[in-house]
User: Fold this.
Amino acid sequence: MFGYIRPYVPELRLREYEQYRAVYCTLCHTLRETYGHAARFTLNFDFVFLIMLYWQNDYDFSCNRRGCMRRPISKCNIIKEKPDIFRLSGGLGVILSYWKLKDEIKDSSFFKSIKYRLSLMAIRGGYKKAEKMYEKFSENVNSRLLELEKCEEDRMATIDQAADKFAGILSDISSIAGGGNERIYSELLYHTGRWIYITDAYNDIYEDIDTGNYNPIVEKYGIKAKSDVDDYIKGEIDLTLNQSLGRVQAAFELLDETIFSDIIRNIIYIGMPLVMKLAREGKFNNTSENINFLE
Assistant:
């Protein structure tokens, strides 16, 4: 369910691209240093977005060139003075990934679940560290995912009720991260979470028709075959996604300008609509590590 919140690289200036990569690489190093090597596998674009949202103008963006395990020949820019938002974003990402893996194990056959079980074992140490630092958030994630599980078990045919559970997880971050403007961040993150959940369901419609897995869109419209997914249904989903995206954009424009404001605009005005376009056809690969995802 992660990886949808990303920039469209061809529209980034070179300076902006380097800034984005620096935040991405610094988060990767923070995960290793704070939560262990395996925690790097939880790295995703959504929490890079969170860091940029909470960036303050008095933070120092000076960087050092450091080695990278994934790219041993080249070096990457790592921010010298990492503000606490890196540790927070990394920890929240580890917690969400942990509970998501548990959910995947529960929903998969034994053999298919082996990869998830191994991943869960690998990040368990990092999760314990993150849980200790952000215990309340971990409890909230577990509670909301249990509510979401109940929606799935009951085959809930209401998109909003299911999406609200996941949206609430991201909205909860606003009470942890601080930095003022809590109401604005709560609104922005709630609708980001709602948009992610519905986009994920949108992208999985055709797969879930084949597998019979719960999908709120399939349940709401009583879809039985792939041919049932017509332009009317897609228009309805486009409308609700655009409503949440509009709320994200409106909330963001109330925040102060920072060095990342133009990158965030690239994400919410170009990147997210393009992800929607791909998800509409079930063609978005949310495990891709290529931030120039339309190449």
